[in-house]
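User: Hi! I'm working on a homework problem where we have to compare a predicted structure to a textbook description. Could you give me the structure for the chain below?
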Amino acid sequence: MSSNIEIQKKCKWCGQIFIARKTSTNYCSHKCNNAAYKERIRQERIATYQKEISINTEETSIENKEFYTPPEVAKLLGISRASIYRYMAENIIKAVQFKGKTLVRRKDIELLFENAAEYKKRIPIEKAPITDFYTTAEVKEKYHVNESWIFVIAKKHNIPRTFNRGKTYWSKKHIDAYFAKKAPDPDITEWYSTQEMQEKFGMTLSAIYTFAYKNAIPKKKEGIMVYYSKKHVDIAKGIAKPEETMYYTVAEAMEKFNLTRDQLYHYVKWHHISKIKKGKYTFISRAELDKLLAPPKIE
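Assistant: Happy to help. Predicted structure tokens:
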């Protein structure tokens, strides 16, 4: 449906006066329209080319500068900016800090290569071959676990294995190390079975699992049976009083280890640190937190 309006306009390509039926019409004919389109594409290509030339010129100018900013040093050496800042912090690369700007002298970069230590080829550390193995049956018998569970845990924790004459053999060292981490605290001597908790507290299985998870109750597994620390369950249920020396308050832990509340709760959650709630207050196991956040040492 054609428009009834008639507007006198000047063609943006050829400059002739023509009658347009739309306010958006800029060209007098298809020929002028196509010519203008081709010219626009041509100018866009020229602009792209000019941009590439300017980038190359900028890179060339960087190489001839006397002083560099850290990003320019990273570009010049072809390494990350984080590495450059680390080298400056370690005084490997000398830098001068002005107010709001850091500069590195080209001469100091060149001196790094002139005074460089002799290159030494990195020798890969030879790993000792694994010679001690458990069969799947031996793992099941020793640690009272299901065969399918062994394969799931081994895949999750990258436990080395080999297959020979129809049998799967598991690295003895890695298996023992995994179960040593999962071993219950030897100081815990009294345990509730799942059935005892159901009878004593009237809890369903799902309620027990949720309760144990939220309160980080220590547990152990023997075959298909799961046991929960009697002392920790009683404290969490309010039957027994916690020993004050056994627990940090949240404020005490934050102050001692210089942590924010979010950082503290992150450690407690992801490392399964035992905790209890008393009213609106949360108490965190002192021994477990001390062990986790102790300074590193080599024995």
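For your comparison, note the following. The mean pLDDT is 82. Residues 76 and 93 are 14 Å apart (CA to CA). Good luck with the assignment!
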